[in-house]
Amino acid sequence: MDFAHVPQIAALEEATFSFPWDEASILAELDNPLALWLVVVEDEKVLGYVGSQTVFEDADILNVAVLPAARRRGIAEALMTALESRLSERGAERITLEVRASNAPAIALYRKLGYAQVGLRKNYYEKPREDALILQKQIANQEETIP
Ligand SMILES: CC(C)(COP(=O)(O)OP(=O)(O)OC[C@H]1O[C@@H](n2cnc3c(N)ncnc32)[C@H](O)[C@@H]1OP(=O)(O)O)[C@@H](O)C(=O)NCCC(=O)NCCS
Fold first, then answer.
1. Is the minimum distance from the CB of 112 to ligand 1 under 6 angstroms?
2. What is the CATH number of the domain that holds 49?
3. Cα dist from 4 to 45, 56, 127, whole Å
4. Whole domain around residue 70: which residue ranges?
């Protein structure tokens, strides 16, 4: 992600989530050494993005979204896979995320990529109130897998 992508990402956040990240918060991620956000861009249009923050070996996915017209083309899967390898290179050992219990498309995506449920937060979300599933995936740390 760079500066030019931020307004489009904020617009997609606004259209997608009950508690969207605003432009200023997304911009601040560009200067946050713990953050890594990736985008898929076609003809200068942001089709999708994923945002993450990493503290030592623990990475959290903050958000992932794809424009409705661009869904089911493998964009989210490509973003998640690229993020995973970049985080692994930086030394992350596991990725954790939260998802609304009713969000079947996202849960299917995460399960396809090998995320497993490690917890449940009752009534975590508002607008509407709903449980959060906590999903996690161990990712290979290249330095540790070299025999
Ligand atoms: C969830 C979301 C990011 C998926 O993006 P996408 O680019 O359409 O997903 P992909 O095309 O990469 O799909 C990869 C896999 O995810 C699963 N999947 C994605 N959308 C699905 C749907 N509507 N129904 C069932 N499975 C779905 C499938 O397993 C799919 O693999 P397949 O195509 O081989 O069946 C997109 O629907 C979205 O932006 N939703 C709104 C925002 C959101 O809910 N974000 C997650 C917050 S935690």
1. yes
2. 3.40.630.30
3. 10, 29, 30
4. 3-140
Whether 13 is a known active-site residue: answer no
Which of 21, 40, 72, 98 has the most ligand 1 atoms within 8 A of CB, as the residue to mutate?
Answer: 72
Is 146 inside any structural domain? no
C-alpha closest to that of 17 among 112, 128, 110, 117? 128
**Tens digit of each residue's pLDDT, the chain (147 residues):** 999 999 999 999 999 999 999 999 999 999 999 999 999 999 999 999 999 999 999 999 999 999 999 999 999 999 999 999 999 999 999 999 999 999 999 999 999 999 999 999 999 999 999 999 999 999 975 555 556
Q: Which residues have CB under 8 Å from 134's CB, separation 6+? A: 96, 97, 98, 117, 118, 119, 120, 121
Using CB atoms within 10 Å of the CB of residue 64, give its burial: 0 to 12 exposed, 13 to 18 middle, 19+ buried: buried
Verify whether ligand 1 is closer than 6 Å to residue 133 (CB atom): no
Per DSSP, the three-state class of 33 is: coil
- Is the pTM of the predicted complex or chain greater than 0.70? yes
